[in-house]
Design brief:
The structure is a homodimer. Helices cover 12% and strands 32% of the residues of chain A. By secondary structure, the first copy, chain A, is mainly beta. Chain A has one domain (5-194). The longest helix of chain A is centred in the middle third of the chain and has 9 residues, at 112-120. The radius of gyration of chain A is 15 Å and the shape is globular. The interface between A and B is large, with 40 and 41 residues. Chains A, B: Residues 6-170 form the DUF1989 domain. Chains A, B: This is Urea carboxylase-associated family protein. Chains A, B: Pfam families: DUF1989.
């Protein structure tokens, strides 16, 4: 058994993976979202690219068999397993401005962007350089005209997405802070890392 | 009459706009795509964000009345007019790897990413820092499962998209180099700039 790492509600974590390591992101209670960003461990100017991923995978939704690509057109991760089946890159990580502008809430509110940034500080990544995240378990619905709507995730307790690292990586993950992403509840995210033999 | 600036087929241009200036991007022959990236003129770490734009505008497709947003959650441009009505952020600018990986072409091929980069060199913007572009006139179709398909643009000769700068900006534009974006033809893009009174 691999140790289960717990990301508390409305918080985040960052860690390194070696090429070949397997990361499993788990929704332990159901209906929670995790934002994930990924950087090349040896050169953090190379990072996850929403546009390159949708381009090479020819899909807005990404699931088992799809790869996540970098801004240098290289594979960063492979999705090996996905028991829920809804993940995308459509919306940027919630930020302080998300709550001011979209929720009309002028007060302090935790956010994925700040949680990603704080956890990435040991790796000297600036907040402006955090890319659009891979939205694990997020249920963004779109109609034929492209209108977007965020619904509670379809994920149930224990659903998971498993990723294999295609290069040495820095990964940051959150347990999402936004009410709309998870049906108004805040829940933890769990993850495990299996090291390559 | 404002001077018409011509971007030759498979090339690009970069220029500055002052807050309030109006940029008109014109498809002079029809069925051509222009990739556009935008930076805050006074701090190029602030730049166009596909994720923030789709998030705040709640739409994959962007047209008249929509704003283009930065990675700092600020409005960069307003779309004032759009005679064609199909623009998106779904695919990253075509790059040398696009032609190697998706077109199975190992030889040299011009690309929007290199044309953006070369034209942005006077502004000291690194290639890794070029964001996913706003795909003006691009006809990316998606089905309910999110599968993507690039069709020739629906734009006809003279179609245009007009943008108002919401802050002082550096803008780079291309006449797209990719066969799939424009039905296998390569054509110019025209643009005009109207300065605020």
């Amino acid at each position: 058994m691999n140790a289960v790492n717990i990301i508390q509600p409305q918080s985040g974590a960052a860690f390194e993976l070696k090429k070949g390591d397997v990361l499993t992101v788990i929704d332990p209670k159901g209906q929670q979202v995790s934002d994930m960003v990924v950087f090349n461990r040896d050169d953090t100017k190379e990072k996850l690219s929403a546009g390159k991923t949708m381009d090479f995978e020819e899909s807005i939704l990404l699931t088992k068999g799809n790869f996540l690509w970098s801004n240098r057109s290289r594979k960063m991760m492979e999705i090996m397993e996905d028991t829920n089946g809804r993940n995308d890159f459509l919306l940027a990580p919630c930020s302080p401005e998300t709550f001011k502008i979209m929720y009309n809430n002028p007060d302090y509110h935790p956010s994925c962007l700040i949680n990603l940034y704080r956890n990435l500080q040991p790796y000297h990544i600036e907040i402006d350089d955090i890319p659009t995240a891979f939205n694990v378990f997020m249920n963004v619905q779109f109609d034929a005209k492209g209108k977007l709507k965020v619904l509670p995730p379809t994920s149930q307790a224990g659903d998971l997405v498993r990723f294999k690292a295609e290069m040495d990586l820095i990964v940051a993950l959150t347990a999402c802070s936004a009410e709309d992403s998870n049906g108004g509840t805040f829940k933890p995210i769990h993850y495990t890392i299996t090291h390559r033999d």
